């Protein structure tokens, strides 16, 4: 029986990357007087690196910042996190089309919900509150709660522990190959809902790959149960 659904956040709950994180990264570079402006295409290539701080550090090294790259990346990332949080609090971040209907249906069906993300709690919590509201999620695990980021399964294992459920009772909803790897490594059946940055990726092991939550065959509570049943 499907007893809970665990959602990723970035690119899954909301299309945060191109219109949220990217401008915040570029504004942080400018604030630190670093002559770097990531284009949407460059940023898409960097998304294979999980964690914003690690993403910055890797690009700094590639550009010749050999000394102190980690320390500089940490400082830029703190600024970026502050700017992104301010953007969420000021302008909000709309949920992906069809997500709210899915959440409403899961709740009505008595299926619990959780989040497993490697994003920072500072911005994850206000984003979730603004997109999903209060008292919807039973468990929220962020990158602040784990040592290993995706594709390592630690964030999913912690979410399962928080729910008090075995992996066989849960379905994950992800948007990327990295997230899929993390969920599968934790033994969780997974639906991938792609976005503009991940639509061309390969998803071996996914139980379904969809272009969106809505459409002629939306991802609803019944479909979640059917996909979970097919796996188990």
Automatic annotation (TrEMBL):
Keywords: Hydrolase. The keyword Cell inner membrane does not apply. GO terms for molecular function: hydrolase activity. SUPFAM superfamilies: HAD-like. This is HAD-IA family hydrolase. It comes from Mycolicibacterium komossense.
